Amino acid sequence: SQQGEEDPQALSIQEGENATMNCSYKTSINNLQWYRQNSGRGLVHLILIRSNEREKHSGRLRVTLDTSKKSSSLLITASRAADTASYFCATPRNSGGGADGLTFGKGTHLIIQP
Amino acid sequence: DGGITQSPKYLFRKEGQNVTLSCEQNLNHDAMYWYRQDPGQGLRLIYYSQIVNDFQKGDIAEGYSVSREKKESFPLTVTSAQKNPTAFYLCASSVQGPSGGYTFGSGTRLTVV
Burial of A100 by CB count in 10 Å (0-12 exposed, 13-18 middle, 19+ buried)? Predict the structure, then answer.
């Protein structure tokens, strides 16, 4: 099965700075998704980028996808204390779009220092 | 408001007991999923269902069972055959196909005592 792996495992920055997290995966995908998880809570879907897209924006989030390198990045601009959370990338388990499940990496734990 | 409700939030199980975790959604989603999360780890897929009365094993189905008798409900039973059941369990749902992401419940934390 395909698997995304996030890098770095942990990231601590000052409020107001930008945070960048990376995800690498192993085989071809038709979409890649990013999720946020606050401590002890469920995951929240942030953004989905399709394989024919190179960049996507949502508010302060920017996601890029490089299918030739099998990698994606999530940029959070002008970070806030409320952005403190774990961030996961997810790819479809099989050749489908994710209907038979997503595979998640271990996540990047982001801490925003006030 | 539409969403997924998981209950209970915390659950304690004695050795040898079966326990059932509830997952209910009012999003009219066809597909539902159960994931397990261990500390510092990603999510691992236990079971999923793409349609009522049908479900498939995920990557770590041993020691678990599910049913999908109604579109809104996808309960997970953790059986005594599951050797290490202490974990955080997350239920999710989605529309069919790659048109959007998953909606997750707030999770059930299961502890064996």
Answer: middle
Is B45 within 8 Å of A104 (Cβ atoms)? Answer: no
A52-69 core/surface letters (b: 16 or more CB in 10 A; e: else): eeeeeeeeebbbbbebee
> Is the separation of the CB atoms in A31 and A51 below 8 Å?
yes
Q: What is the pLDDT of residues A13-62, one digit of tens each?
A: 999 999 999 999 998 898 999 999 999 999 999 999 999 999 999 999 99
First-residue to last-residue Cα distance in chain A: 40
Rounded CA separation B33/B56 (Å):
10
Q: Which residue has the tokens 């349609």?
A: B51
Non-local (6+) Cβ contacts of A114 within 8 A are: A15, A81
- Interchain contact, B102 vs A41, CB within 8 Å: no
Test B92 with A1 for CB contact under 8 angstroms.
no
3-class secondary structure per residue, A20-77 = EEEEECCCCCCEEEEEEECCCCCEEEEEEEECCCCEEEECCEEEEEECCCCEEEEEEC
- Nearest residue of chain B to residue A88 (CA atoms): B42
Q: Say yes or no to pLDDT of A1 above 60.
A: no
Q: Which of A86, A93, A96 is nearest to A26 (CA)?
A: A93
Of B6, B50, B90, the CB nearest to A99: B50
Tell how far CA A76 is from the center of its chain: 10
